[in-house]
Amino acid sequence: MCGIVGYVGKPPVVGTVLDALSRLEYRGYDSAGIAVFNGRGIEVRKRVGKLKELIASLNTQPLEGQAAVGHTRWATHGEPSERNAHPHLDCRGELALVHNGIVENYAELKARLLGQGHRFRSQTDTEVIAHLVEEHAKRLPLAEAFRSALKELRGSYALCLIAKRDPTHLHGARAGSPLIVGLGRGEAFLASDVPAVLARTRRVIYLNEQEVVELSTSGVKLTTLNGTPVARKPSTVSWDLSAAQKEGYDHFMLKEIFEQPSAVERTLYNRLDAAKGQIAFDHRTRAFLSRLSSREKFVIIACGTAYHAGLVGGYMLEELAKIPVDVDLASEFRYRAPMLDRDTTVIAITQSGETADTLAGVRLAKEQGAKVLAICNVMGSSIPREADAVLYTHAGPEIAVASTKAYTSQLTVLYLLTLSLAKRRGLVKPARLRELLTTLGRLPRLIERSLAAEPAIKRIARRYARARNFYYLGRRYNFPSALEGALKLKEICPRIHAEGYAAGEMKHGPISLIRNGWPVVFLATDSTVYEKVVSNIEEVRARKGECLLIASEGNRAIRRHADALITVPKTEELFSPILIAAPLQLLAYHIARLNGCDIDQPPNLAKSVTVE
Ligand code: M6R
């Protein structure tokens, strides 16, 4: 959480930092700030609220200079306020620092620094770092002082610092929070994420854990915390700027919903040959899969939407590949005593690759001798780097806080993995495999047909936009779809309470809440449990709930059970979650829009949850 940017280069320095910050606002948006070295000293401007408040202030009273650091915040320590907003300064206002992460030992460091005479202005953990660097810089050159300060920190950080004493350099470091270097022509960036720099460069260096960087327009010096030089060539990212822009859509979320056919297509590209019944993975993943034992057990760990993809994965891996699977929330997994051994593979699913709980789960798994396979969207992020093998989703940058195309791309990878394992284990006949792979290859077109339901979904959204409680119910493969549909709605429309439930569990409690007109979204596509779902629909109707059904095209009989109906292409049960996803996302989107919600930046949320 929090987006950080540092820049040295050509004017307009402030405009460049603001543009970069605008592409990181998904990481937090309760306050924003910038510090600029103006040739004489450091000037700071901060505003509470979104970046646009800071931009408005800078339009009225501009700042300009040669180097700057900027920040968009998601508060951890200290309420959102100007004094708690970053950048933070040392006592003399001669160095400015932005931070993403949490300094766990800040209280003890602060007590010591107060004793040494430092004056604090904020309630944040971050400010101690500025004073700590100041303290070390009394005796050491700045770069060394920075590294010495870092050695005293416990917790997580991505940091960027500018100082009056060395104004042509940015100083950065990472431990537990992401940081990249962007190398342009006569300019250089530090940023939390690649989209921040895409408008200017696609040449990036990903910092590893505990690495420190000193950066100017003429070069990069990468070292360990001890100052040992590290050699790393820049990589060229394949994403282009359009991927990080709205391109005519009103919201990133809507754009990303409609990008799903191409995201799934890219994720399948070069991996699938349906006619030959083949699935191809990269060399490292192939080697990894070939090492799995016949007793192998899987534990899928993830958070939020990625967890819902994992739940679907659990059903398919058990059904088709006959591998025992536990699916766990990473935040729970890391604090229970999981029984892991050499015959366990932990599959970590994550869009960002930086989610703190999932990363901690990966580390726990490795400590206990399990293997780790990551499913991730962001190349070079922490989780794939710590995993033994990686299956990348190729969804492109996902900017909206609500995850959409990352989810369907995760499902796509899980289909590939499941069918590949089923084939390796001889559990699927060649003709059946070709049939399943052919459907897999057609998913992008089938998702397009699901998206075509948008006009009907808009009408349904208008009808139910004023409701304040929703249930989402499904069974088997679509129980996770119910959880995901409810999460989408409550996430982007905080005025509404939405709950996903296993349809068969209704009678065990929740049905008592159903009242006249209470909307219940039923996932009622053709499946082995279709008739059970229809019985559950009737139970809700008997209590005067309103049944909004998502069903398979061509199912005429279901109409009499429906107060509102959305149809998706008829398909095999295991593929139904990926076709149901888009209508659920669109329903949430249009209800939120009618309620005037801030769809891309819902209150109190941030896209990457890099703190516990
Ligand atoms: O980056 P990750 O996939 O690890 O993120 C996990 C969750 O934080 C994320 O899916 C979150 O639940 C989304 N905002 C849901 O739309």
Broad shape? globular
- The residue fraction in helices comes out at 25-40%
In this entry the ligands are: 5-amino-5-deoxy-1-O-phosphono-D-mannitol
What composes the largest sheet?
8 strands, antiparallel
Q: How many E strands?
A: 26
CATH fold-level assignment of the largest domain:
Glutamine Phosphoribosylpyrophosphate, subunit 1, domain 1
Strand content: 15-25%
- Compute the number of helices: 18
Structural class: alpha/beta
Radius of gyration: 25 Å
The order of strands across the largest sheet is 3-2-4-1-10-9-11-14
Unreliable stretches:
none
Q: How confident overall, as mean pLDDT? A: 94
The CATH first-level class of the largest domain comes to Alpha Beta
Tell me the distance between the termini: 11 Å
Classified in CATH, the superfamily of the largest domain is Aminohydrolase, N-terminal nucleophile (Ntn) domain
Overall domain count: 3
By CATH, the architecture of the largest domain is named 4-Layer Sandwich
